[in-house]
Structure formats: C-alpha cells, structure tokens
Sequence to fold (166 residues):
Amino acid sequence: MLYRAAGQRQSFTVEVCVIDKNDNVPSFTAVSMRGSVQLGLLKGIPFMRVEASDRDDRNTAHADLRFLLMDQTPRIPAAHMFSIDTVNGEVSLTEDGASTLDPEMCGRYKLLVMVKDMAGKANAFFSTGTVTVEVTGNTWASPDPVRLQENLPGPYPIPISQVTSS
Ligand SMILES: [Ca+2]
Ligand SMILES: [Ca+2]
Fold:
C-alpha cells in the first residue's frame, strides 16, 4: 500500500488474513451411485467407494468430510450387511454381510449414505446420497447346478431319471 502525504512517501505492509467460513455444504460427486459386490467377498474388503466434495478451504475443518451409512433397504438377510469407512468412503461387507449375502434372497440393495463436514461434528453441514449395490454370484460356481431334494425318504436307490428304449 502506498501512502502519500505532504510530499512524503511511506509504504505500509498490509497483511490480509482471510479466515474461511463454513459456507459450503458437502455433496456427493453423484447423488445416485452404483456398485456391485460379489458373493464370497470377505468382510472389510472394499468393493466400491463413494466420493464427495466441499468447496470450503481443505485445510480447515470446514471441508473435513466424514461418511455415514444411514439405512439399508431391504434389511435382509441381516439388518447391517454393509459398512462405510468414515474417512475415505470405502464400502465393504460387515461380518453379517459376508456370511449371509445371498443373491437369490436379495440381489440388490439400496443404501442411504450421508456426508458431513466439520469432521462429522454436531454443527456440521451434511447431504445425502443413495448407493445401489448389485449382488453377483461367484464366478467359480457351476453354471448349471443339479438340484436334488434333501433328505429324500428311502428306500435307496431312488430313480432320478429313467431312460427307455423302444
Ligand atoms: Ca468457505
Ligand atoms: Ca463445508
């Protein structure tokens, strides 16, 4: 800054300190996200990641984001099949999820996820998004399984099919 007075020249250094305000709500990169999980995946191993952004200063808590899993639809075979990493948004199976996942019982889940700034504190801004998770069978399964009824009453052997010739 240059200051002139009565023919004198003086210079001042003005330090401008910009303090960021938390004036941006974090949001998911896509409101609707998709992923797929394969039968047989172990618990805690991420199969997808949700992403979000916040236009506040990254070096402040105003853009320090946390992820939360709010709801799972449907809640079968277990109510909490999935887990989201609070910090990096990676989605994985819980222990219940890994042990009960069954594409024949439920082949698609909808997850309601939330992103919060302020490191997830109570005064945080937040927004929500949905994740559709498709469940796929494992690739090493026989493509055409032969199904036999369990506990067939005897006596054995029981004819399953008969070939006749004329
Ligand atoms: Ca700001
Ligand atoms: Ca913010």
Q: What stands out?
A: The chain has a mean pLDDT of 87. Residues 22-136 form a domain with the Immunoglobulin-like fold (CATH 2.60.40.60). The two ends are 110 Å apart (CA to CA). Residues 20-21, 23-24, 56, 62 surround calcium ion (ligand 1) (CB under 6 Å).
